[in-house]
Amino acid sequence: MPDALPPDGLLADLSALLGPAGLLTDAADIAPALSDWRGLYQGRAMAVLRPASTDQVAACVKLCVAAGVPIVPQGGNTSMVGGATPSEDGRAVILSLARMNRIRALDPVDMTMTAEAGVVLKIAQDAAADCGCLFPLSLGAEGTATIGGVLSTNAGGNTTVRYGNARDLMLGLEVVLPDGQVWNGLRRLRKDNTGYALRHLFVGAEGTLGIVTAATLRMFARPRANEVLFCSVRDEDAALSVFRRFRETDETAIRAFEYMSGVGVDFAVKHIPGVTLPVAERADHYILVDLASTRADADLQGLAEQVLGAAMEEGEVIDAVVGGSEAKRTAIWRIREEHPEAQRKEGASVKNDVSVPVSKVPELIRRASAACVALIPGTRPVPFGHMGDGNIHMNLEQPVDMDPAAFLARSHDIMDTVNEVVRELDGSFSAEHGIGRLKTDMMESWRGGAELSTMQRIKSALDPAGLMNPGKVLP
């Protein structure tokens, strides 16, 4: 049960507005929405609101604001930083966008899709494919994450090196503002230079400035040729050198370029049924290269052989496997995608979603790994991720003989240790997961002064009562 009672009449008004399917108050019904994906937070809420239209969202906001009740927007609830979890005081309602799951329009000539916030990312990908196009945003949670959520966190994912983050794929938004007004900015224009670009305020704001209810998104031509490579490489510098070789040979062919440590791949092979090592011998460093072209006659295998041949001559690549079939390409990608689950099965881990300039990725991996091992001897670094755009998940697995709870109790020490290296390399402590509840205490030291005060003034101007996803992003 929540710690706070709802204001008189609020639940009755919401029930009349939303109907039986639109308001959940039973403890068992709302329980799945009260904790985050990683299990870091367990909140409380008066109710879960499930509006089915933008007008209903706006009406919910007006009722809650009038009653002084905080609102926590929620999409697929896949946040890695507690961004969609309510506080423990039970004063808030959760506003789920799950019922707003229509694709309103598809235009393969304009190459645009207009989708409601509750559309699951994989559904959006499939809808684009059905009309002969590509919606390229791809990440591990794409079967659960929603359009509203990925925009509210400015999600990145695997193909950022080619297509950019969620922000780069967005042309327009529909947003319910903190006073209940609806801003309809669903424009399909590539060029629209009329005043402030308001749409960009709400991307990455994690629901603290308003509730995204729909978006107009960019689509692209579908690739007609695809190849995936798995390579063992000499070290982190060799991995970066191979990326440079592909970029200099044919930058347009690179769809993803991922780094994996030997330890991380070991965990995937050990814990995930069906995952096997594609190359003959284990190594300490691996890369996954995903190549794609809209040209049916693109010789991607020839490109791979050309680049890898030169890299092998220089001793950068030790061994390599070319997918060659859809089944093998999927199996290679599975090694990378199963890293989080494999780490979970291995024990307790502390996750760091950081970014540095691409040229400094090798130094980040080496220095952060050494610093964390020095902090807690026996710690097992498991760095992996998007080397091509500078975003590495600098994760640390507990020592084999250490109590998991004791290791997790050192989480902030570990994050601070990683972040000291990141700061010295001109990086960011939050690359693609956002701030949520987990990292608000870091904002003052990283974004203090004019930058943070400007953010706070924007928040105060749009949400003077502080009811939109309180406790997230800003300290």
Q: What are the SSEs and their pairings?
A:
Blueprint (H helix, E strand, L loop, with lengths): L9 H9 L4 E2 L2 H4 L17 E2 L4 H14 L3 E4 L18 E4 L6 E5 L4 E5 L4 H10 L2 E2 L12 H6 L7 H4 L6 E7 L5 E4 L13 H4 L8 E8 L1 E2 L3 E9 L2 H15 L3 E8 H10 L13 E9 L6 H14 L3 E6 L3 H12 L1 H8 L2 E2 L2 E3 L5 H15 L4 E7 L4 E7 L6 H5 L2 H14 L18 H5 L2 H13 L13
Helix pairs in contact: 1-3, 8-10, 8-13, 9-12, 13-15
Give structural notes.
- This is D-2-hydroxyacid dehydrogenase.
- GO terms for molecular function: catalytic activity; FAD binding.
- InterPro entries: FAD-bd_oxidored_4_C, FAD-bd_PCMH, FAD-bd_PCMH-like_sf, FAD-bd_PCMH_sub1, FAD-bd_PCMH_sub2, FAD-linked_Oxase-like_C, FAD-oxidored/transferase_4, Oxid_FAD_bind_N.
- Residues 41-222 form the FAD-binding PCMH-type domain.
- The protein is α+β, with helices and mostly antiparallel strands.
- It folds into 5 domains: 10-96, 2-Layer Sandwich (Uridine Diphospho-n-acetylenolpyruvylglucosamine Reductase, domain 2), CATH 3.30.43; 103-221, Uridine Diphospho-n-acetylenolpyruvylglucosamine Reductase, domain 3 (2-Layer Sandwich); 225-339, Alpha-Beta Plaits, CATH 3.30.70; 347-432, Alpha-Beta Plaits (2-Layer Sandwich); 439-475.
- The protein is built from 17 helices and 19 strands.
- The protein has helices at 10-18, 27-30, 54-67, 121-130, 147-152, 160-163, 199-202, 236-250, 262-271, 300-313, 326-337, 339-346, 361-375, 404-408, 411-424, 443-447, 450-462; strands at residues 23-24, 48-49, 71-74, 93-96, 103-107, 112-116, 133-134, 170-176, 182-185, 211-218, 220-221, 225-233, 254-261, 285-293, 317-322, 349-350, 353-355, 380-386, 391-397.
- The strands form 4 sheets. Strands 12, 13, 14, 15, 16, 17, 18 and 19 form an 8-stranded antiparallel sheet that branches.
- Strand 8 (170-176) and strand 9 form a beta hairpin.
- It starts with 9 loop residues before the first helix and ends in a 13-residue tail after the last helix.
- The model has no long low-confidence stretch (mean pLDDT 96).
